[in-house]
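Entry 12.
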Amino acid sequence: MTAVDLSGVPDDDVPNLAIVIVTYNSAEVLEGCLRSLKSQGVRLASIVVADNASQDHSVAIAQAAADDLPIQTVQLGRNAGYAAAINAASATLDMRKVSAVFLMNPDCRLRPDSLRLLARVLRQPGRGIAVPRLVNPDGTLQPSLRRRPTVGRALAESLLGGRLAGRIGVLGEMITDPARYERPGPAVWATGAAMLIAAEAARDIGPWDESFLLYSEETEYALRAADRGWTLWYEPAAVVEHIGGDSGINPRLAALLVVNRVTLFRRRHRGPTAWAYYLAVLSGELIRALTGRRTARAIAVALLRPSRRIKALAD
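Predicted 3D structure (tokens):
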């Protein structure tokens, strides 16, 4: 895969972007991720690989790729989480010299021109975040768009499951209707595996909330962006392949994911509404725990016993 020749294109017509990639034992996927950045129709001012104390060769792979790409590495020295790594990487960037910064997981591969298409979306006033169409390695759709969290949606997902609830009108938080993913448009929030943030919006929204460690940090960021008047826009012409993680099978990560969802909702809502959301989520996990699901049991324990919740990520 070779880089696109931009030598004859006027500077004003070519977006100047920064890239932030957060790694943690990502050696198996990082090389492919970096290689996919070479055919994007944009100028890459800087690529920052923020490493959360990987014990494999992630940092070495990033440093070796610096011969072809403008890569620098930031080593946090511990597994500080996704938001902390983003903040550490962003601190090395001069946001006045780029039009936007692209955040991506190392298990992502960009299809050609995806960054150019996302950058074009952000030329419209008021659009602060642009997200692509995510697909699985086999090319099938990976549902990435979400509706606003509500008590009713939490209850529906507890009773029916997230994917089934998402198929029934607007009942679920997850948007699963394939037709929605065929057309561009605004969304409340989206999976944080790949998102382009306008530099002006990033300065206005501020740093990512590091208290979440993993999961819900992108939800909090998107909701905070909307609070400040910025729109998150979905662009299906930009396509990113996302391998995905193991939160669905790892009980501790699954518990962290659900606890963070509840924590975020309770930060943004008070009184009976916050309690109703908590009870809706808890009831669903208790029902699943009774059927023998290990992940549901871990989630229920974490919701009921704060002392059992993850406070730090293991290195």
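Annotation: The longest strand covers residues 231-242. The domain at 11-242 is CATH 3.90.550.10 (Spore Coat Polysaccharide Biosynthesis Protein SpsA; Chain A).
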